[in-house]
Amino acid sequence: MGIDVKLFAKWRRYLLISAIISILIFIVLSPATQNLIKKKSYRSYIPASKQRPGNPEKGFKYLVEGNYIVSGVPLNIYKLSGLKGENILKRSGDNASLPYYLSAVTAPNGERVVTPNCLHCHAQRLDGEVIIGLGNSTIDFTQDFSSSTRMVGKMISLFYGADSPKSMAYKTLSDRFVTISPQIRTEVRGVNPADNLAYILAQYRDPVSLVWNDKPLDEIKNIPVVPTDVPAWWTMKKKHAMFYTASGRGDFSRLMMASSLLTMKNTKDASHIDKKFPDILAYINQIKAPKWPKKVNSDMVIQGRKLFKSDCTRCHGSYGPGGKYPNYLISLDSIKTDPLLAEQLAGDAKEAIETYNKSWFAKGPFGATLSVESGYVAPPLDGVWATAPYLHNGSVPDLASLLNSTLRPKYWQRSFYSYDYDFNKIGWTYKKHKHNNENNKLIYDTTKPGYGNQGHYYADDFTDDERQALIEYLKTL
Ligand code: HEC
Ligand code: HEC
Predict the structure, then answer these.
(1) Pocket flag, ligand 2, residue 235 (CB < 6 Å)
(2) Separation of alpha carbons 413 and 411, rounded Å
């Protein structure tokens, strides 16, 4: 009998232990726990990396007058066009008469040439005012510019001779445009193919010596053009990584100088330009977000701030004194916006990225790399009232429809006129279309691959009044 009790006590212990284990397994495998685990991984923290210090005044000067692109249209020929710009940047000398997005620089052979600067893509007029750092959402990359580029070349030859220093000073940029332009055409006006531009430039240069080859190094990989909006420069100071996918890691100055790949000769040129870019970064880091130019309803702002804190801050951070930006990459499963840009990193662009990560750019104490993680950055929302259209591909015309996905137009067309900004819905005034059967490039067609306007459903459950309050609050950021 005594033995039986002992045995039972022993068995009881085993039974109890196995019951506990079964319950634990049941809890772990239950859908509720699985969801909790998933929820935890809907975001990943983006670690900071060290940046080189620079001088913002020198940076601005280099940005709008510097010769980081050293080939272009000879100044005399440009002047013949009669095009004149208002001197918005208050530049002097040759630059004083050029529009803000062009610079006069000296080519290696001593010729003065006119060439695009970063503000071509990183400044835009809004309600008549040029805002430096506002991504340009009006550029037209739908055309192939190679024949007009060739035509300008013919004109220069006609005036000065095909082997003249002026023709030579134009040739590098012209050759590159002719190679690249047909490969970076977008489906819609207003979006930017900068990522593809970088991938293509990488395929024509030796990664170690950076010397250009007229033929691509390997068989050219046809990477489909994915459209992006251009992010606002004033949010950079908060971000731990560059680009929508947070792929730009390490030294930001090194990453930014990629535009120079258009015309630089070799690593000697690259090293020279590389020393100047920390100044540009210092300039970019002190650009402030433009202030909302009209009145706000302060009661609604207070209500909107509360809603923002409960539903948006976990991803977008907090604003005002003591504000914190959390630097998260949000998984595609959670954000559900068009996945093509993020998926391309590990897909079609894989080789180009591997080449970059083995190249001159990744070397030395100030190396930069492109990292591949699937998702999109939850961006800082400073000055967000000015940055329409919204989402990484610019597929949503205004904040009203960003916060209520049922309002997002499938086919929409804007005038590309800077005064057509809608200060109620906060974004570009647009006309809806029923279809785009004529493939009109002025119509934003969200049915094309990469151009989808789905996702970011986080404000769909709010009432219209709550969304209005949120918008009122967003105006103040
Ligand atoms: C052809 C248009 C174009 C030109 C020219 C251009 N950029 Fe950009 N830039 C872009 C686009 C588009 C992105 C966003 C790409 C992405 O995130 O996938 C970008 C991203 C950036 C970013 C990161 C912003 C962020 O929030 O992640 C910085 C900084 C930047 N560019 C600086 C520069 C500088 C400096 C120059 C001139 C040397 C320059 N860019 C020239 C189009 C351009
Ligand atoms: C789970 C994280 C997350 C939450 C919660 C969230 N967002 Fe976002 N938000 C993102 C991401 C990621 C993007 C960029 C998506 C893209 O470009 O494809 C974004 C983009 C935006 C943009 C567009 C920015 C631009 O310049 O295009 C606005 C505006 C915005 N969110 C507002 C809000 C508001 C308001 C809330 C609260 C109701 C909110 N978000 C909640 C992650 C989040």
Answers:
(1) no
(2) 7
